[in-house]
Amino acid sequence: MTIGDLRLSLPDDDRAERAMTALGVVFRDPDLLRLSLVHRSWLNDLGADAAATVVASNERLEFLGDALLGLITADWLYRRFPDLPEGNLTSYRVALVRTETLAEWAIGFGLPDLIYLARGEVGSGGEVRPRILAGAFEAILGAIYLDRGIRVARQFICALLDADSDRVIDDSETMNYKGRLQELIQDRERLTPGYQTVSVSGPDHAHTFVVEAVLGDRILGAGSGSNKRAAEQDAARDALERLSLEGIVETDGRPL
Fold first, then answer.
1. Catalytic annotation present for 138
2. Do the strands 208-215 and 194-201 form a parallel or antiparallel pair, or are they unpaired?
3. Active-site entry in 138, 212, 238, 241
4. Whose CB has fewer CB within 10 Å in the chain, the N or C terminal residue?
5. Is the pLDDT confidence value at 172 over 50?
6. Predicted confidence (pLDDT) per residue in 35-69, tens digit
7. Measured between alpha carbons, how far apart are the two ends of the chain, in Å?
8. One-character DSSP codes across 33-99
9. Which of 75-89, 102-116, 125-139: highest mean pLDDT?
10. Which pLDDT does position 229 carry in this prediction?
11. Edge-to-edge strand order for the sheet containing 194-201?
12. Does residue 66 have an active-site annotation?
């Protein structure tokens, strides 16, 4: 099955043209862009005869786009912050390529109205889940790379990073790290991480708590703070960074 074959199965609409206008990228092969907009749920929504002629969704392009996004963002951060230590670069990368950030960018390009999506995946108010939007965004990046090459793909992502990175990084400083870690671990392990106090030091009016985030007998991360809550948040942040570095989760913190 080729991209040309897929074209025969997609509705005769102007989604590819609208997407190119919104993205500011002209595709040599618009059907590659259309493929990046096909969520797997849409295939299930087709009638039996039509579905039999379609064997692809945007998942392979999403896989490619995720890898590209991690590389381009890491390179951009390395050059933008030449004196920043590796731990901070990792935190920034996680913030910039997490699901919520990609979903915001996808909404900015009008993707909720462009994705081929099953009716059951659309909320009562027309909203599309962030994970679906993020996946479509990554798939589009993969399509841009295949159609126009790494230079255009890099320009596309770097323009977003140049315009939005400061806001995203600032927002990440106040994110709920404990909630994010719990979401990831429950998704992957079907378990809930816990927190244990390792030490409390300092005078009564200025305690310093050291806390570890744990899963069973495994230490996921460690952190400190002026109270237990702050220390637990810091331990969860450290755990998210370690999971990303170990390759246990994707570059935006999502489970593999």
1. yes
2. antiparallel
3. 138
4. C
5. yes
6. 999 998 887 776 554 544 555 789 999 999 999 99
7. 28
8. HHHHTB-HHHHHHS-HHHHTT----SHHHHHHHHHHHHHHHHHHHHHH-TT--HHHHHHHHHHHHSH
9. 102-116
10. 81
11. 194-201, 208-215, 218-225
12. yes
The token duo for 107 is: 């909404």
Per annotation, catalytic residue among 62, 66, 232, 250: 66
Answer yes or no: are the C-beta atoms of 133 and 106 closer than 8 Å: yes
